[in-house]
Amino acid sequence: MNAPPAKLLDTFGRLHDNLRVSVTDRCNIRCYYCMPEKDAQYVPHAEILRYEEIERFARIAASLGVTKIRVTGGEPLVRRDLHVLVRKLGAIEGISDIAVTTNGVLLAEQAQALYDAGLRRLNVHLDTLDRERFRLITRRDELHRVLAGIDKALELGFGPLKINAVAVKDLVEPDIVPLARFARERGVEVRYIEFMPLDAQGLWDKGKVLLAGGILEMLGEGIGPLEAVPDPDPRAPALQYRFVDGKGSIGFIASVSRPFCLNCNRIRLTSDGQLRYCLFAMEETDVKGLLRGGASDEDIRQLVRGVVERKWLGHEINTARFVAPPRPMYAIGG
Asked: What is the pTM of this model?
């Protein structure tokens, strides 16, 4: 009988069992708060981790107690044969939860292969149902493909399926209630994500953040009252609410107004093989060098333990000490 894996605890007592893996820094839309419209800087293809390398790292992470993996980008569906990686990850002993975060543009084409590979959990990024505002935000005319992808995923039986909407003040207010209605009609959850300082162009300031409290007021007035729902996992990043009439739930990733750093259980592997203990971290640790340099699994386990041990208390967005990380969101992994 195998011994239970040693727990990944940091110096603040936080248990880490959640790994986010970026498979690419490339994307097929250009959300203005994430990427420049032109001349985005990408990692050369040879420097991107191969699926076999990601699989090996995930196996090592599982041996340290990681049970959940979320595949991100960039846009993960632009990486060829993503379903192959999903199948590999799903076969790892100890991994009980695999999810993918996508912008949905290629979802209708790939949903069947992903479903057949065992994927069930999806988060689809969608800020608006208005075609012109979608084009303004993403600089692409792809709303119809995103909606088709959501419909196809629901038809196949994906679930839970969640919609991620970035909340930028003075831009998305007209979309808050329509998105919630759209989700209620389809039995999915919208997660409103407060605009974070991770854009490639330095556009963020706190005055541009549409806060969770304001969104709650809009939903209460536009649809009906909501009530807080205790999350069964106290380390989950989202604040959960449900409509009192029983039709649907809403989540908030309130990184600015209500940081959840004290409960964080995540580590992040970038597409070019750098391990990060926080989305906002100023430092990264090279895993790819070990994966490609003949290191043993134990060498890599020791590296992971060291990264977790060095994890800071939190990102300090709401203090004068905050400094945005040098890499934008699309290069780190969503």
From this structure: 0.92
What is d(CA 275, CA 166) in angstroms, rounded to the nearest whole number?
25
3-state helix, strand, coil in the chain (%, to 5): 35, 20, 50
Residues 177-195: pLDDT tens digits? 999 999 999 999 999 988 8
Residue 179 lies in a domain: no
Beta strands in 11-160 (DSSP E): 18-22, 68-72, 97-102, 121-125
- Percentage with pLDDT > 90 across the chain: 70
Residues of the domain holding 316: 18-163+264-332
What span, in angstroms and rounded, lies between the C-alpha atoms of 135 and 258?
A: 30
Euclidean distance between CA atoms 107 and 158, whole angstroms: 12
- Residue 9: inside a domain: no
Mean pLDDT of all residues belonging to the chain: 90
Beta bridge partners of 123: 101, 162
- Asked if residue 186 is part of any domain, the answer here is no
Q: In this model, does residue 200 exceed pLDDT 60?
A: no
Closest CA to 281 of 251, 261, 252: 261
Q: Can the peptide bond before residue 74 be classed as cis, meaning omega within 30 degrees of 0?
A: yes
Spatial distance between the Cα atoms of 227 and 240, rounded to a whole number of angstroms: 9
The CATH number given to whatever domain includes residue 152 is 3.20.20.70
What is the identity of the amino acid at 106? L
Q: What is the DSSP letter of 222?
A: H
In a domain, 319, yes or no: yes
